[in-house]
Design brief:
mainly alpha, MetI-like fold
Length: 226
């Protein structure tokens, strides 16, 4: 009965709309993943190596972000910053979108990389120092390559979550994939068709991202983990 009443033509006719929403989702997710990885590596290293002040600030940032809902964080950036007394901060919707997922993903990746860097055996770092690499040289040539591989599985999960969390940006009216679907459903009242197409699209995108990352994970796996 459902198949008989399902309007496939509606989905076909609105593929361009879904594509526009998907492009916005992928843009925000791409910036979010890249930005959160950069934050994670820098602050994760600061925490793992107990860098004064920076380590404490990083720990505070992680605690605040990981213990508050991302939706609250989105509303704070979109609604509270423009009303800051004396120093209002007004951002474009696209900037709010990528900034929110970068901040959220960065907190989780900070912990992912901190754990990875701390798991690198100390004797490896001693060997780097003994070879005259210096502290920075040892980090970039020993700790980072090994620690990043150790952190890879948890980082993959965070990156996938960054992509999925872009759907929450519909709360501020940003025209990503979920918001596009909601607008189509509001205009057409074809909820079954719209949300079926939305769910399938997310499944395809997330499965594709997961597959690509798993390939990278296998290629970068430590020899003993293969």
């Amino acid at each position: 009965m459902l198949a008989a009443n399902f309007d496939w033509q509606f989905i076909w006719d609105h593929l361009p709309d879904f594509w526009e929403g998907l492009k916005q989702t992928l843009k925000v997710a791409g910036i979010g993943i890249a930005g959160s990885l950069a934050i994670g590596i820098v602050l994760g290293a600061a925490r793992a190596h107990r860098v004064p002040v920076v380590s404490w600030l990083a720990a505070t940032y992680v605690e605040v972000i990981r213990n508050t809902p991302i939706l609250v964080q989105i509303f704070f950036i979109a609604g509270a910053l423009p009303h800051f007394p004396g120093h209002p901060i007004r951002l474009e919707p696209f900037t709010i979108a990528w900034l929110a997922v970068v901040i959220w993903g960065g907190a989780y990746n900070t912990e992912n990389f901190r754990a990875g860097f701390e798991a690198v055996p100390y004797r490896y770092r001693e060997a780097g120092l003994a070879l005259g690499l210096g502290r920075l040289g040892t980090f970039f040539n020993v700790t980072l390559p090994i620690g990043a591989r150790i952190a890879l599985p948890s980082t993959i999960n965070t990156n996938v979550s960054v992509l999925k969390n872009t759907s929450l940006l519909t709360a501020i009216g940003f025209a990503e994939l979920t918001n596009t679907a909601y607008s189509l459903e509001s205009e057409s009242f074809k909820a079954t068709e719209v949300y079926f197409a939305l769910g399938v699209t997310y499944l395809i995108v997330v499965w594709t991202l997961s597959l690509l990352i798993r390939v990278v994970e296998r290629r970068l796996a430590l020899p003993e983990a293969r």
